[in-house]
Amino acid sequence: MRKPAAVVLTSTAALIAALGLVACGGGDSGSSGGSSSAPTTEQSGAAPADEGQTIFVQNCGTCHTLSAAGTDGNVGPNLDSAGADYEEVRSQVINGGGGMPVFEGVLTDAQIDAVSKYVAENAGK
Ligand code: HEC
Description:
The structure is a single chain. The chain contains five helices and two strands, in the order ααββααα. 49% of the residues lie in helices and 3% in strands. It has helices at residues 4-24, 48-59, 79-82, 86-95, 109-122; strands at residues 65-66, 71-72. It has two domains: 1-27; 48-122, Orthogonal Bundle (Cytochrome Bc1 Complex, Chain D, domain 2), CATH 1.10.760.10. α4 packs across α5. By secondary structure, it is mainly alpha-helical. The longest helix is centred in the N-terminal third of the chain and has 21 residues, at 4-24. It is globular and about 25 Å long. The chain has a two-stranded antiparallel ribbon. Heme C binds at residues 59-60, 62-64, 75-77, 79, 82, 84, 88-89, 92-93, 97-101, 103, 115, 119.
């Protein structure tokens, strides 16, 4: 039984290699193992919240005010005071209606998910 040392060494090396790749920002070719590919900002492992903000600013901000995102659109309701939770935002984004476009098929499921979480978590902040 003298395996453990080798196992520990191997996994440590793998971990270091993985960390090194992430820290360097790699290319976009290596993004096979993680988050469901969203081709927006590929800088240093952008957190979902940042991605949600980018999507919001690009797709929603012209119509909606959300101070966390710095947008001041006034075609649709002010999302800081709408008080919509994740499910409400998500279904509105998917289905549109009442003057709001349908985003299903425009944004990927992952993008709809990210932007809905972003709105639900940042409204009123
Ligand atoms: C072309 C303008 C426009 C765009 C772009 C737009 N919306 Fe809307 N949105 C509206 C309008 C108008 C309403 C009001 C719909 C209604 O009253 O039925 C609305 C309603 C909403 C609501 C419901 C608010 C409430 O009072 O509960 C949410 C949440 C929402 N939008 C989120 C988004 C998100 C997230 C995006 C981007 C993916 C987006 N909207 C893009 C115009 C827009």
